[in-house]
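Lab notebook, page 48
Experiment: co-folding of the full assembly
Goal: obtain a model of how the components sit together before planning crosslinking
Operator: M.T.
Materials (sequences as entered):
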Amino acid sequence: MPKDLLPARAVFLDRDGTLIRDKNYLHRPDEVEFFPGIAPALRQLQDAGFLLCIVTNQSGVGRGYFTLRDVERVHAHIEAELAAEDVVFDAIYVAPEAPDAPSEGRKPSPKFLLEARDEFGVDLARSYMIGDKLIDLETGWNAGCARSLLVRTGYGAETERKEAGHLRDAVVVDDLCAAAAWIAAQE
Ligand SMILES: [Mg+2]
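Observation: model returned without errors.
Model output:
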């Protein structure tokens, strides 16, 4: 089948600790610090035909520390910075609820990945989830992704150590660049 008739594929990306440095309850554009080399890494995935979707829990909204408008401003900044390097995100999904509040989308819920499946025709079984916490890996597993990848940036190294018994078949790599290279090598 020609490539453009195949179902879409996606790479789902955690935000804090994966794309940008995890700063507790970051909520201002000037706090955004990208990890080195992520633009070419994301472009590599995009050029390989993957949709790029950010999936982020932002409990600071539910806790009243900042507003959804703050989150949107941060995301507009992230999108603009990366658009300048020809990286375009297809969707940014935010779960704003506090951890103890009911939430359909909060990771490890697969809800947003299922939404992407329905909206873009994403074949989840040929898609990937990348993050620095166990909940990110679980999100990918819960959605039926091909693999979940754990990056050692952010809380990743700690996750690798503390959750060693729960990593199942997660692919553990140093950072997003290594994750993109690993995915590209599966093609
Ligand atoms: Mg994270």
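Interpretation: The longest helix spans residues 68-83.
Next step: discuss with group before ordering constructs.
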